[in-house]
Write a structure and sequence with these properties.
By secondary structure, the protein is an alpha+beta fold. Helix content is about 20%, strand content about 35%. Helix 4 runs antiparallel to helix 5 and helix 5 packs parallel to helix 6.
Amino acid sequence: NRIRVRLVFRVAAAFHQTDVIMLLRCHIPLPDFPVDIDTSFDARVTSIFGPSGSGKTTILDAIAGLINVKEGEIEIDGKILFSSTRGINLSPQQRSIGYVPQEGALFPHLSVRQNVLFGSDRVSPIAAKTRIQTDHVFDVLEIANLLDRPITKLSGGEAQRIALARAVLSRPQLLLLDEPLAALDIALKGKILPYLSRVRDEFSLPVIYVTHNLSEVLALADWILMIRKGRLLAQGVPKDVLRSPDTIAQIAGDQLENVFTVMITGADQVAGRTRVRLKSGEELFIPYIGKSEGQTLQVRISPGDILISTQRPEGISAANIIPGIIRQIARSDGQAIVAVDAGAAFYVRLTASAVDRLKLVEDDPVFLIMKTHSFRIL
């Protein structure tokens, strides 16, 4: 079988006023199923989201020139990387693409400093004029104190930061990230995610981010491509796509997350909680964090940690009780995802029997109940 891919998209250019326009049309032999994608978009960070084995990494490898493409075209910002009709097939080194694979792929025989700077002296003259400075990368990723260590002495999270620094310092036209957090435990993921946000914000690099974790999509991406078994299910702004019952039904319950950007409005260390405000103005209590009022951060809560009531509850310990309106209910395999507009879009996971018992229907008012310590800080 062949993967059939036609992917056309725009991403914000790193160092130009115009957009970078990328065109991908290619056929790639695979043993299981054909991938057939035809899309275009304009985003700073685009996430290719889907379960393992759906063809996500294959798409990245084709863009980077790491696999043989039988036929098609790959073009970025007018530069042809591959064309079977024109007989063009640039090597990975000629494509001006930074790639961070799942395991980082650091060189164990080199020091951290040598890994980070590997290839940075061989960038093109145009790329060498970019605003990305070595010391700035060290500061953003907080790796200056790691430079003289051997690779074998790094933790998993440190190794990922080194791999990311190496990719950024190649001064690429496009940065590809293939599930960079997949091999990390939950605690490390929470520590590395802010570094990915900093790279996005500090260096203005267009990014294609592959993941099967929706909390990462919601925290980082401006645009999402949802694929499953090689087929494009949906695309668009992540929160808009995730409001669709058709796409919600395709998502495993443990993948769906609620991720919000909030501003700190107060804190009580004795009570162990911090008061934060959503962009809508609604206030929540989250676990205590030693940061000043006015600072912003991202928090997440699992859909399974939110309760729904049709009446305002009284005499309960949960600090967060928020009124909202049911917008959509998606059912799948005895489970239901209820999308509630409560100043922000909240997704709640219930059993289908609970939905029936509570007689929940779209456009009905409800109350969301959330414990303070159900929130996690990213």
